């Protein structure tokens, strides 16, 4: 298989999938190394393909912004409260698109998440533990933003209300 055909196959796989696909999985399917897939995805992104790298693999976003309500929330909590924050968002119908922190030197740092369920929250924590990684909010005393996608504004407001009850929504008082 030539490089162009392989990149087309990657796009087809990502377009058809409702879940993220890891570079290792794509490499196995296409009989190449993981590094080849990572390079192919980098080239596809450079050509303008909307491919997101998430902790679980690559995705091509399916729903356009017009089909969903997109909002941002500011949060502050301890690392121990993080699971409760993420569970609350997905339990009330939200997708955690990303996490954003403001860094003194680099400016805005964004981590793509695309977490839609409790099991994906659990997977995120397993991966964080396995890699001995700290959340981005560790850099900012727990203060961070999340972009949340959900079916409508009413759902978004319910999520905000629940996070406020838990004391997780950031209040600069």
Automatic annotation (TrEMBL):
Highest taxon above the source species: Bacteria
Domain called Helix-turn-helix type: residue spans: 6-59
Per UniProt, the keywords (alphabetical) are: Metal-binding, Nickel
- Residues binding Ni(2+) are 77, 85, 144, 146
Which residue intervals define the domain 3H in the entry? Answer: 73-169
> What is any Pfam family matched here?
HTH_11
Look up the coiled coil feature and give its residue ranges: none
Q: Name one GO molecular function term.
A: metal ion binding
Name of the protein described by the UniProt record: Transcription repressor NadR
Organism this protein belongs to: Carnobacterium maltaromaticum
């Amino acid at each position: 298989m030539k490089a162009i055909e392989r990149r087309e196959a990657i796009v087809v796989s990502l377009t058809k999938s409702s879940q993220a696909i890891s570079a290792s999985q794509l490499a196995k399917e296409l009989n190449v190394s993981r590094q080849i897939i990572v390079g192919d995805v980098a080239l596809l992104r450079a050509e303008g393909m909307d491919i997101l790298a998430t902790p679980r693999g690559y995705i091509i976003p399916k729903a356009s912004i017009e089909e969903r309500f997109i909002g941002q929330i500011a949060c502050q909590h301890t690392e121990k409260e993080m699971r409760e924050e993420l569970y609350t968002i997905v339990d009330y119908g939200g997708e955690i698109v990303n996490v954003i922190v403001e860094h003194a030197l680099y400016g805005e740092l964004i981590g793509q998440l695309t977490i839609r369920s409790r099991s994906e929250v659990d997977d995120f924590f397993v991966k964080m533990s396995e890699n001995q990684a700290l959340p981005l909010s560790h850099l900012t005393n727990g203060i961070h933003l999340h972009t949340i996608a959900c079916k409508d504004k009413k759902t978004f407001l319910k999520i905000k209300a629940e996070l406020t009850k838990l004391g997780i929504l950031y209040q600069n008082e």
